[in-house]
Amino acid sequence: MPPSFATYIRSLAFIALFYVNLTAHMIAALPTLLLPRRILHVFVRSYALTSLWLLRVICGTKVEWRGVEKIPKTACILACKHQSAWETFALYAAIDDPTYILKRELMWLPLFGWYMRKEGLIPVDRSAGMAALARMTARARQAAGARRVGRSDSTVRVSASAAAGRHNFCRVKRFSGVGSS
C-alpha cells in the first residue's frame, strides 16, 4: 500500500524542521568554536535530542534504546551499520561522548566540518588504502584515552568488499587497544 498524502506532508515537515533545527543549533553554537570542546558537545547533544523529539512528534517514530547499559564505561568501539543519517545524530542522545570515524570530505563543509573537527571526530581518506587505516587507528588510540569511539560501517571500509571492512574493523580494534561492543 503506498504512503498516504498525510505521510508525505509529515515527512516534508520533518525534513524542513530537521534542517531548521540543525541551522539554529549551528548558528547558536558558533561561539563554541573558541571555547572548550565539552561546551560544543552540549549543543550537539541538544541537536540530537531535539531531532529525535521532532521525529517522534511529527512522524510518530519512537526510538527504543536496547542494551545501552551494556556499553562499557571505558573506551570501546561501537560498530553501527550505516544505512542513513539517523545514527549520526541519534547516538549523541544515547551515548555520553562518542567519537565518529567519517569520510574526510565531510570535514571540508563550512561550519559543519569546523564543528566536527572541534568535536574531535576522526576523518579517513578512503582512497589512501592501508595508510588511511594506520592513521585512523592512531587517531582512535588517541580518542580512546577519554572517550568512546563510534564507527559507521560504510565510512571505515578502505576497500570495496564487506569482508575487508570487517577485517579493517578488527585491525582498528586490535591496534588501537580499544574494546568493542
Q: What is the compact description of this entry?
A:
With 181 residues, the protein is an alpha/beta fold.
Give a structural overview.
This protein has 181 residues and is α/β, with parallel strands linked by helices. It folds into two domains: 5-59; 68-180. Helix content is 54%, strand content 12%. It has seven helices and five strands; from the N terminus they run ααβαβαβαβααβ. Strands 3-2-4-1-5 form a five-stranded parallel sheet, with helices on both faces. Strand 2, helix 4 (112-119) and strand 3 form a beta-alpha-beta unit. Helix 1 (5-28) packs antiparallel against helix 2 (37-59) and helix 2 crosses helix 3. The longest helix has 24 residues, at 5-28. The radius of gyration is 17 Å and the shape is globular. It starts with a helix and ends with a strand. The model is unreliable at 151-176 (pLDDT under 50).
